[in-house]
Amino acid sequence: MVAKIEQDHQRFRQIVKGKIRKDLRKFLTRRDLIGKEGKGIVSIPIHDIDIPTFRYGDNSSGVGMGEGEGGQGSTGGDQPGKHMLEADVTLEELADILADELKLPRIEPRGQSKIISVRDKYTGIRPTGPASLRSFKRTYREALKRQLMLGAYDEEDPIIIPIKRDMRYRSWNEVRKPQNNAAIIYMMDVSGSMGDQQKEIVRMTAFWIDTWLRRNYEGIESRYIVHDVAAKEVDKQTFYTVREDGGTRISSALNTAREILDKDYPASQWNIYLFHFSDGDNSSEADNRQCVKLLQDKLLPACNMFGYCQVASSYGSGNFINVLHEAFPGSDKSTGHDEDSPPIITAKVNGRDDIYDALKVFFGAGR
Hints:
- The chain has 367 residues and is of the alpha/beta class.
- The chain folds into 3 domains: 1-50 and 83-102, no CATH class; 117-176, no CATH class; 179-363, Rossmann fold, CATH 3.40.50.410.
- The protein has helices at residues 2-22, 24-27, 31-35, 91-102, 136-150, 196-216, 236-241, 250-264, 285-299, 320-327, 355-363, and strands at 41-47, 84-90, 116-126, 169-178, 181-189, 219-227, 231-234, 271-278, 305-311, 344-349.
- The strands form 3 sheets. Strands 7-6-5-8-9-10 form a 6-stranded mixed β-sheet, sandwiched between helices. A two-stranded antiparallel sheet has the order 1-2.
- Helix 6 links the parallel strand 5 (181-189) and strand 6.
- Helix 4 packs across helix 6 and helix 8 packs parallel to helix 9 (285-299).
- The protein starts with a helix and ends with a helix.
C-alpha cells in the first residue's frame, strides 16, 4: 500500500512538472511565485489539474440521500467549480525544468576553486556518544546478537530489549572539502526613467538568474548596487523598491562593483557574475568610454560573465546597449564565444514575455 501511494505521488509530481514546463514562459512572469519564495521552496498555483481525492464505494443510498429543502435566499449552481491547486516545488526542480526547456548547458566553473568548506561526515559506529546520535539499527542488531548467543531469543515471542552495552552511536569526522563558489553582483539604474514596471521585470529576471546559478554552485553570495549619477551598495529589499530621480552615470555602478570584487572576491577563488539593468540612458559619451575601459581593464578579466539587460522604458530606450555591441563584437549573442573572447552578453527586455528569451541568451553559452 505504501509503495502504491509513493508511486501515485511520483506520478502526480511528474504531471505538475509537465504542466510547469508546458507553461514555462507564463510561469517566468508570475509575481506571486517570486513572492512565495522561501527556504528553497516555492508554491506554484497550477490550474486544470484534478486535486487528488480519496474515493469510496457505492454511495447511491444511505444517510443524507433523501429529498431535502434548499437553503433560504440562495440557489446552488449546476456546473462544477474551477479548482486551483498549489504545488510546492523546490528551486532545484524549477532550475532543472528551466534548463530542460531552454536547453541550457551546465555551467563549468572557472579554474580550480580554493574555497574550503568544513563539514561533519558520519564515518562509523562507536559504543559511546550522546543520545541524539544513537543508531537504532545497530543497537537493535547488537541486542539481537547478544540474545542469540545467550540462548535468550524466543522465536515464538521475539522481544528484543537492548541493555547499556548494546548501545551504538554514530561517529563523525570533520571533512575539509573544496567547493565551487560564486558571487553575483546585481546593478540597477534607479533614475527617474526606471519606474515600477521596469523594476518588476528586473526582479523577475534576477530571480531566475539566481535560481539557475544556485543550481550550478554549492555556495552563492549575492550583492546589490543601485545608482543614478552616484552608486551605493544596498540590501536586497532596497534594491527592488528604491526609486530616485536625476541623471544616470553607469560608470559609478561599475566602479562600485570593482571595489567589492577587489575587497571580497579575488578572481582566483571565486566564480564571478555581474548583471547590470538599465533603460540604456547614460549621462555622456565620455562616461560610455569610461564604462568600456572599466569593463576591458578591470571587470571582464575577473568574471565568468557580465550580463547587460536593457529594459524598455516608457520614456524610450537609450543607446548603451549599442555602445557595448560596438566595443565588444558578439556580445549580443549567447553562442559562438571561445575562451579568449570577452565574457559579455547583452539582452533586451521590452516586456515580461522577453524574460524567457533573455535567460536563454545569458546562459546559452554555459559560462
